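# nightly structure sweep
# worker-07 picked up a monomer target from the shared queue
# config: single-sequence mode, recycle default, output format = C-alpha coordinates
# input follows
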Amino acid sequence: MAEHEWMKQARALVGKEYGRVYAWDRVNEPMIRQWCELMGVAVPHDAEGQVLAPEAMLQVWCMEGPVANNYPPGSTTDNPYEVLKLMEAQGFASVVAVNSELSFDRAVREGERLYYTTRLDSVGDEKTTALGTGFFVTLIMSYFAEQDGGDEKVGQLLFRVFKFRPANPVKPAASQGDAPSGPPKIKRSAPGISDDTRFFWEGAREGRLLVQRCKGCGTLRHPPGPVCPSCHSFEWDTLQASGRGTVYSFVVMHYPEVPPFDHPNPIALIELEEGTRLIAQLVGVKPSEVQIGQAVQVEFNSFNDGELVLPQFRPLAA
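# output follows
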Protein backbone atom coordinates (compact mmCIF):
# COMPACT_ATOMS: atom_id res chain seq x y z
CA MET A 1 0.00 0.00 0.00
CA ALA A 2 1.45 3.36 -1.05
CA GLU A 3 2.05 5.89 1.69
CA HIS A 4 -0.61 8.32 0.47
CA GLU A 5 -3.19 5.53 0.48
CA TRP A 6 -2.60 4.42 4.07
CA MET A 7 -2.45 8.03 5.26
CA LYS A 8 -5.90 8.58 3.79
CA GLN A 9 -7.04 5.63 5.86
CA ALA A 10 -5.38 7.08 8.97
CA ARG A 11 -6.86 10.54 8.51
CA ALA A 12 -10.30 9.06 7.90
CA LEU A 13 -10.20 7.89 11.52
CA VAL A 14 -9.83 11.46 12.86
CA GLY A 15 -12.92 12.36 14.85
CA LYS A 16 -13.86 8.75 15.49
CA GLU A 17 -15.43 8.19 18.90
CA TYR A 18 -14.67 4.96 20.73
CA GLY A 19 -17.15 3.53 23.19
CA ARG A 20 -17.26 3.59 26.95
CA VAL A 21 -14.66 2.08 29.25
CA TYR A 22 -16.20 1.64 32.69
CA ALA A 23 -14.58 1.69 36.10
CA TRP A 24 -14.55 -1.65 37.91
CA ASP A 25 -15.67 -0.02 41.16
CA ARG A 26 -17.67 2.98 42.17
CA VAL A 27 -15.74 5.83 43.74
CA ASN A 28 -15.11 4.57 47.26
CA GLU A 29 -13.45 5.77 50.43
CA PRO A 30 -11.01 2.82 50.95
CA MET A 31 -9.34 3.39 47.57
CA ILE A 32 -9.29 7.15 48.14
CA ARG A 33 -7.72 6.69 51.57
CA GLN A 34 -5.02 4.35 50.25
CA TRP A 35 -4.20 6.68 47.35
CA CYS A 36 -3.99 9.70 49.66
CA GLU A 37 -1.83 7.76 52.12
CA LEU A 38 0.68 6.86 49.38
CA MET A 39 0.70 10.42 48.06
CA GLY A 40 1.04 11.94 51.53
CA VAL A 41 -2.10 14.08 51.34
CA ALA A 42 -5.27 14.28 53.42
CA VAL A 43 -8.57 12.77 52.23
CA PRO A 44 -10.62 15.71 50.90
CA HIS A 45 -14.23 16.42 51.88
CA ASP A 46 -16.85 18.86 50.65
CA ALA A 47 -18.61 21.47 52.81
CA GLU A 48 -21.16 18.87 53.98
CA GLY A 49 -18.43 16.41 54.97
CA GLN A 50 -18.90 14.03 52.03
CA VAL A 51 -15.74 12.23 50.87
CA LEU A 52 -14.27 13.47 47.59
CA ALA A 53 -11.66 11.83 45.39
CA PRO A 54 -8.56 13.97 44.70
CA GLU A 55 -8.76 15.34 41.16
CA ALA A 56 -5.39 13.85 40.21
CA MET A 57 -6.84 10.40 40.97
CA LEU A 58 -9.34 10.63 38.09
CA GLN A 59 -7.49 8.39 35.65
CA VAL A 60 -7.04 5.67 38.28
CA TRP A 61 -10.72 4.73 38.53
CA CYS A 62 -11.04 3.41 34.97
CA MET A 63 -7.75 1.52 34.74
CA GLU A 64 -7.98 -2.18 33.96
CA GLY A 65 -5.88 -3.40 36.90
CA PRO A 66 -2.95 -5.85 36.91
CA VAL A 67 -4.39 -7.94 34.04
CA ALA A 68 -3.95 -6.20 30.70
CA ASN A 69 -7.12 -5.18 28.82
CA ASN A 70 -9.37 -6.66 31.50
CA TYR A 71 -12.22 -4.15 31.51
CA PRO A 72 -15.63 -4.42 33.19
CA PRO A 73 -18.66 -5.87 31.36
CA GLY A 74 -20.26 -3.33 29.06
CA SER A 75 -16.97 -1.67 28.12
CA THR A 76 -16.12 -1.24 24.45
CA THR A 77 -13.97 -3.85 22.71
CA ASP A 78 -12.81 -1.35 20.06
CA ASN A 79 -9.11 -0.48 20.08
CA PRO A 80 -8.77 3.32 20.41
CA TYR A 81 -5.12 3.05 19.32
CA GLU A 82 -5.91 1.57 15.90
CA VAL A 83 -4.37 4.55 14.10
CA LEU A 84 -1.07 3.88 15.93
CA LYS A 85 -1.19 0.24 14.89
CA LEU A 86 -1.79 1.35 11.31
CA MET A 87 1.31 3.58 11.45
CA GLU A 88 3.42 0.84 13.01
CA ALA A 89 2.53 -1.46 10.12
CA GLN A 90 4.04 1.16 7.78
CA GLY A 91 7.32 1.34 9.71
CA PHE A 92 6.47 4.26 12.02
CA ALA A 93 7.04 2.13 15.11
CA SER A 94 9.25 4.37 17.25
CA VAL A 95 7.92 6.73 19.90
CA VAL A 96 9.17 9.99 21.33
CA ALA A 97 7.63 13.15 22.84
CA VAL A 98 4.82 11.38 24.68
CA ASN A 99 2.87 13.79 26.83
CA SER A 100 -0.48 13.89 28.59
CA GLU A 101 -2.58 16.69 30.05
CA LEU A 102 -5.19 15.86 32.69
CA SER A 103 -7.85 18.52 33.34
CA PHE A 104 -10.79 18.49 35.72
CA ASP A 105 -14.33 19.85 35.64
CA ARG A 106 -15.03 18.90 39.24
CA ALA A 107 -14.01 16.46 41.95
CA VAL A 108 -15.79 13.11 41.88
CA ARG A 109 -17.76 11.98 44.92
CA GLU A 110 -17.97 8.78 46.86
CA GLY A 111 -20.50 6.40 45.29
CA GLU A 112 -20.35 7.74 41.73
CA ARG A 113 -19.81 5.37 38.80
CA LEU A 114 -17.36 6.62 36.17
CA TYR A 115 -16.52 5.81 32.57
CA TYR A 116 -14.54 7.42 29.78
CA THR A 117 -14.80 7.59 26.01
CA THR A 118 -11.95 8.16 23.54
CA ARG A 119 -11.84 10.36 20.45
CA LEU A 120 -9.03 10.51 17.89
CA ASP A 121 -8.53 14.27 17.87
CA SER A 122 -5.89 14.72 15.19
CA VAL A 123 -3.11 13.25 13.07
CA GLY A 124 -0.57 15.97 12.33
CA ASP A 125 1.30 16.66 9.13
CA GLU A 126 4.46 14.70 8.44
CA LYS A 127 7.44 16.15 10.29
CA THR A 128 11.12 15.37 9.93
CA THR A 129 13.41 15.54 12.96
CA ALA A 130 16.96 14.44 13.69
CA LEU A 131 15.50 11.16 14.97
CA GLY A 132 13.43 10.46 11.90
CA THR A 133 10.19 11.28 10.11
CA GLY A 134 6.77 10.85 11.66
CA PHE A 135 3.43 12.21 12.81
CA PHE A 136 1.98 13.67 15.99
CA VAL A 137 -1.16 11.79 17.05
CA THR A 138 -3.54 13.24 19.65
CA LEU A 139 -6.23 11.30 21.50
CA ILE A 140 -8.70 12.75 24.00
CA MET A 141 -10.29 10.68 26.77
CA SER A 142 -13.39 12.31 28.31
CA TYR A 143 -14.46 11.14 31.78
CA PHE A 144 -18.10 11.08 32.89
CA ALA A 145 -20.08 10.33 36.04
CA GLU A 146 -23.38 8.53 35.51
CA GLN A 147 -26.39 10.60 36.62
CA ASP A 148 -30.12 9.88 36.56
CA GLY A 149 -30.80 13.19 34.85
CA GLY A 150 -27.98 12.84 32.31
CA ASP A 151 -24.32 11.91 32.63
CA GLU A 152 -21.97 14.70 33.70
CA LYS A 153 -18.47 15.29 32.35
CA VAL A 154 -15.95 15.43 35.20
CA GLY A 155 -12.59 15.64 33.42
CA GLN A 156 -10.46 15.03 30.36
CA LEU A 157 -7.13 13.41 29.49
CA LEU A 158 -5.26 14.56 26.39
CA PHE A 159 -2.69 12.02 25.16
CA ARG A 160 -0.24 13.02 22.42
CA VAL A 161 2.55 10.92 20.91
CA PHE A 162 5.03 11.33 18.06
CA LYS A 163 5.20 8.14 15.99
CA PHE A 164 8.19 8.11 13.68
CA ARG A 165 10.30 6.02 11.35
CA PRO A 166 13.92 6.21 12.58
CA ALA A 167 16.45 7.88 10.34
CA ASN A 168 18.75 5.28 8.80
CA PRO A 169 21.96 6.86 7.55
CA VAL A 170 23.91 4.41 5.42
CA LYS A 171 27.52 4.04 6.57
CA PRO A 172 30.18 4.15 3.85
CA ALA A 173 31.09 0.64 2.79
CA ALA A 174 34.69 -0.43 3.30
CA SER A 175 34.70 -1.83 -0.23
CA GLN A 176 32.37 -1.87 -3.18
CA GLY A 177 31.41 -5.47 -2.48
CA ASP A 178 30.27 -4.87 1.11
CA ALA A 179 26.59 -5.28 1.82
CA PRO A 180 24.81 -2.09 2.97
CA SER A 181 24.60 -1.78 6.74
CA GLY A 182 21.28 -2.37 8.53
CA PRO A 183 19.39 0.12 10.67
CA PRO A 184 21.34 1.44 13.66
CA LYS A 185 20.80 -0.41 16.90
CA ILE A 186 18.72 1.65 19.32
CA LYS A 187 20.48 2.15 22.64
CA ARG A 188 19.06 2.66 26.09
CA SER A 189 18.98 6.29 27.14
CA ALA A 190 21.79 7.15 29.53
CA PRO A 191 20.77 8.65 32.89
CA GLY A 192 21.37 12.29 33.68
CA ILE A 193 24.32 12.34 36.07
CA SER A 194 24.96 15.20 38.50
CA ASP A 195 27.24 15.73 41.49
CA ASP A 196 24.39 14.40 43.66
CA THR A 197 23.91 11.14 41.72
CA ARG A 198 27.37 10.35 40.37
CA PHE A 199 28.21 8.04 43.32
CA PHE A 200 25.16 5.86 42.54
CA TRP A 201 26.10 5.21 38.91
CA GLU A 202 29.79 4.75 39.68
CA GLY A 203 28.78 2.21 42.33
CA ALA A 204 26.62 0.38 39.80
CA ARG A 205 29.60 0.05 37.44
CA GLU A 206 31.48 -1.57 40.33
CA GLY A 207 28.58 -3.92 41.13
CA ARG A 208 27.63 -2.06 44.31
CA LEU A 209 24.18 -0.70 45.23
CA LEU A 210 24.89 2.54 47.12
CA VAL A 211 22.30 4.50 49.06
CA GLN A 212 22.79 8.07 50.23
CA ARG A 213 22.88 8.44 54.04
CA CYS A 214 22.68 11.61 56.12
CA LYS A 215 25.67 12.08 58.43
CA GLY A 216 23.57 14.16 60.77
CA CYS A 217 20.67 11.83 61.56
CA GLY A 218 21.47 8.65 59.62
CA THR A 219 18.38 8.88 57.39
CA LEU A 220 18.66 6.99 54.09
CA ARG A 221 17.32 8.74 51.02
CA HIS A 222 16.72 7.87 47.39
CA PRO A 223 16.70 9.51 44.92
CA PRO A 224 19.85 11.25 46.10
CA GLY A 225 19.77 14.94 46.91
CA PRO A 226 21.97 17.66 48.39
CA VAL A 227 20.00 18.13 51.63
CA CYS A 228 18.54 15.70 54.16
CA PRO A 229 14.73 16.09 54.19
CA SER A 230 14.63 15.09 57.87
CA CYS A 231 17.27 17.28 59.56
CA HIS A 232 18.31 19.53 56.64
CA SER A 233 21.97 18.61 56.95
CA PHE A 234 24.21 18.98 53.90
CA GLU A 235 26.61 16.31 55.13
CA TRP A 236 26.20 12.81 53.73
CA ASP A 237 27.97 9.57 52.94
CA THR A 238 26.82 6.28 51.43
CA LEU A 239 25.73 2.88 52.61
CA GLN A 240 26.29 -0.21 50.48
CA ALA A 241 22.95 -2.00 50.45
CA SER A 242 22.67 -5.77 50.42
CA GLY A 243 20.57 -5.60 47.26
CA ARG A 244 17.81 -7.67 48.83
CA GLY A 245 14.29 -6.32 49.01
CA THR A 246 10.64 -6.83 48.18
CA VAL A 247 8.25 -5.54 45.52
CA TYR A 248 6.39 -2.68 47.20
CA SER A 249 4.43 -1.74 44.08
CA PHE A 250 4.73 -2.24 40.32
CA VAL A 251 3.38 -1.35 36.90
CA VAL A 252 3.57 -3.26 33.62
CA MET A 253 4.17 -1.08 30.57
CA HIS A 254 2.23 -2.42 27.58
CA TYR A 255 1.92 0.61 25.36
CA PRO A 256 3.49 2.55 23.76
CA GLU A 257 6.18 0.02 22.83
CA VAL A 258 9.47 1.88 23.08
CA PRO A 259 12.64 0.27 21.67
CA PRO A 260 14.92 -1.23 22.88
CA PHE A 261 12.77 -2.45 25.79
CA ASP A 262 10.93 -5.75 25.69
CA HIS A 263 7.19 -5.53 26.17
CA PRO A 264 5.27 -6.03 28.34
CA ASN A 265 7.85 -4.31 30.58
CA PRO A 266 7.52 -4.75 34.38
CA ILE A 267 8.78 -1.82 36.47
CA ALA A 268 8.75 -2.08 40.26
CA LEU A 269 9.12 0.11 43.32
CA ILE A 270 11.54 -1.97 45.40
CA GLU A 271 11.66 -1.65 49.17
CA LEU A 272 15.21 -2.51 50.20
CA GLU A 273 15.74 -4.37 53.44
CA GLU A 274 17.63 -1.29 54.68
CA GLY A 275 14.33 0.61 54.56
CA THR A 276 14.50 2.92 51.56
CA ARG A 277 12.87 2.41 48.14
CA LEU A 278 13.96 2.74 44.53
CA ILE A 279 12.47 2.17 41.09
CA ALA A 280 14.00 -0.47 38.82
CA GLN A 281 13.16 -2.88 36.03
CA LEU A 282 12.30 -6.48 36.93
CA VAL A 283 14.01 -9.29 35.01
CA GLY A 284 13.61 -13.04 34.96
CA VAL A 285 9.88 -12.98 35.65
CA LYS A 286 6.73 -12.99 33.53
CA PRO A 287 4.72 -9.79 34.03
CA SER A 288 1.68 -11.86 35.03
CA GLU A 289 3.68 -13.45 37.85
CA VAL A 290 4.86 -10.27 39.59
CA GLN A 291 3.37 -9.96 43.07
CA ILE A 292 3.36 -7.36 45.83
CA GLY A 293 5.71 -8.50 48.60
CA GLN A 294 7.74 -10.72 46.27
CA ALA A 295 11.37 -11.14 47.41
CA VAL A 296 13.94 -9.82 44.91
CA GLN A 297 17.70 -9.46 44.59
CA VAL A 298 19.65 -6.84 42.67
CA GLU A 299 21.83 -7.73 39.71
CA PHE A 300 23.91 -5.39 37.57
CA ASN A 301 23.54 -5.68 33.81
CA SER A 302 25.45 -3.95 31.03
CA PHE A 303 23.89 -2.24 28.01
CA ASN A 304 25.00 -0.16 25.04
CA ASP A 305 28.09 -2.30 24.48
CA GLY A 306 29.16 -1.92 28.09
CA GLU A 307 28.76 1.86 28.23
CA LEU A 308 25.81 1.66 30.65
CA VAL A 309 25.37 -0.48 33.79
CA LEU A 310 21.94 -0.62 35.42
CA PRO A 311 20.78 -2.19 38.68
CA GLN A 312 17.85 -4.53 37.93
CA PHE A 313 16.02 -6.88 40.25
CA ARG A 314 15.30 -10.58 39.85
CA PRO A 315 12.74 -12.46 41.98
CA LEU A 316 14.16 -14.97 44.41
CA ALA A 317 12.87 -18.53 44.53
CA ALA A 318 10.23 -19.03 47.20
